[in-house]
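Dock iron/sulfur cluster; give full complex structure.
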Amino acid sequence: MITKNRDLNILNMLEEEIYNLIKKCSTDLPEDVENALIIASKQEEENSPSKWVLDGILENIKISREQETPLCQDTGTLLFFLDLPDGTPVIAIENAIKNAVVKATKDGFLRQNTIESVSGESIASNISVGAPYINLEFSDRKDVCIRLMLKGGGCENVSTQYSLPNAELSAGRDLDGVRKCILDAAYKAQGMGCSPSIFGVNIGGDRGSGYVNSKKQLLRSLNDMSQNHEISDLEKQTLKEVNMLNIGPMGLSGKTTLLGLKIGDSSRLPASYFVTISMMCWACRRAEILIETKECS
Ligand code: SF4
């Protein structure tokens, strides 16, 4: 158990683990995403723009991994999702995260990517109000799970939210309505936000929690299928339909607009039915660490 009387060694260990997590997340793409890009490349015609784009991305991934350099110049918004045992001293963990972010920024694994919204001034440490974002959940688990996502700005700009019913789309408050929203979002994005993309979708919630839960879907492996059969059918079917739109990588036409579609749901009020779509670019940077609590005792 991490105790309030932890010593300096424990905090240093935690900081180092989180620093390594940031470094890996920034420089190395998850295997499932890279495999999906390889499959996408094989499906495109030789010498087509979509094939050039995909092969360029694959080369980029290889170089970043070998040279331990960021996968993209935009190292993204830092989103930490923590699953913690009840009673964990969170301030110590939050401090370890912030120290690790400062060091990873100094070492060039993160760009100085945070600015004051009103003044436009750069914040060199990447530490400010709401930066990094840290989401906490407590349960009776025994270990500490820290998941990190680096969320690009370009794909965030085309993320969107619908309130159903939507007359323009003839979308009602049902799964077919959800399907219409996803198709509409993909069509309107036209590859913007550096496709091929991955969509994380949340059905329900309020506007704020809808975006948080849709981002949590982006933490799922591309191979993970929803346990809810209706939703897993929707994921498979809509993924196929989006890829039939021929928007393609970076909107240059082609067979793969979406690498994956992950849908979750959360409860809602009778008055509301939100469909929230968080788009993730090809640089789907996510990584996690599990820390046995006995390491921290
Ligand atoms: S959207 Fe993604 S790939 Fe495009 S510039 Fe931003 S982080 Fe990089």
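Observed: The radius of gyration is 20 Å.
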